[in-house]
Design brief:
Distance between the termini: 48 Å
Order of helices and strands: HHHHHHHHHHHHHH
Number of strands: 0
CATH topology: Fic-like fold
Structural class: mainly alpha
Radius of gyration: 17 Å
Number of domains: 1
CATH class: Mainly Alpha
Largest sheet: none
CATH superfamily: Fido-like domain
Helix content: over 70%
Strand content: under 5%
């Protein structure tokens, strides 16, 4: 049997309790606020908020109102384009993750030449991308939130595509939560959690890339906090206030 590569990460000091608390917070929002009122419109609103937050993290200056009106700048349009097809890729993420990731990039990078869309930028990037695919298909008992956090960081720091790697990483993270049953209707807004904690988000990604085991540890603890913030950003939570 192949070793569970994520298990040592999920058992780092403070990680089990942080992720248990984050999952409890997500479950509370989905159960207490949403089960009786969930609608396709609520999912669409969550995806829209996520697209806006992801675009801002990518450099967009568009407001949420701009995005609602379809009047956002290029990064906003790229992120919205991804969001409109994202949930349909959930089955592929489990069966053929490299195809799903390639499709996410092709949607985000629709303005680029065809030969640059959905393809790794070089052989080294292709190898890193295969590693992410392996993480998504290898059996694991690690919590899905931990898988999502590692997939996000791997894609964001490896930058396997020629562009739009941040948008791809955040979209893949959301899709892991959907595909692995944490948030099947995609009502949590993890992208908004990262935007709310932007300075910590960016510094912890740098630490993941260069800080060795300590950097990975810090990223995982940070991501649990971001998921809690993403639950608070859900349309369910806001509508209930």
């Amino acid at each position: 049997m192949s070793p569970d590569l994520l298990s040592p990460l999920a058992s780092m000091e403070g990680v089990p309790s942080a992720y248990a608390a984050a999952r409890d917070g997500i479950d509370a929002v989905l159960r207490d606020r949403g089960l009786r009122r969930t609608s396709p419109e609520t999912t669409a609103e969550s995806l829209l908020r996520g697209a806006h937050a992801s675009a801002v993290l990518e450099g967009s200056t568009a407001t949420l109102a701009d995005v609602r009106e379809g009047a956002g700048d290029e990064p906003a349009r790229d992120a919205v384009r991804v969001s409109t097809e994202l949930l349909g890729l959930a089955p592929a993420l489990s069966r053929s993750p490299l195809q799903a990731l390639a499709r996410i990039h092709a949607l985000a990078a629709a303005g680029l030449p065809e030969e640059q869309r959905g393809r790794p930028r070089d052989a080294g990037a292709a190898e890193r991308l295969r590693g992410v695919g392996d993480l998504l298909t290898r059996p694991t008992e690690v919590p899905a939130l931990v898988v999502a956090a590692v997939v996000h960081a791997e894609l964001a720091t490896a930058a396997p595509f020629s562009s739009h790697n941040g948008i791809v990483a955040r979209a893949a993270e959301r899709l892991v939560l959907v595909a692995r049953g944490v948030d099947e209707k995609s009502l949590v807004v993890p992208e908004a959690g990262h935007l709310a904690l932007r300075a910590a988000y960016e510094s912890n990604l740098r630490g993941y890339a260069t800080g060795g085991r300590a950097g990975v540890h810090s990223w995982l603890l940070y991501a649990a906090e971001a998921y809690a913030a993403g639950a608070e950003a859900s349309p369910l939570r806001r509508d209930a206030e």
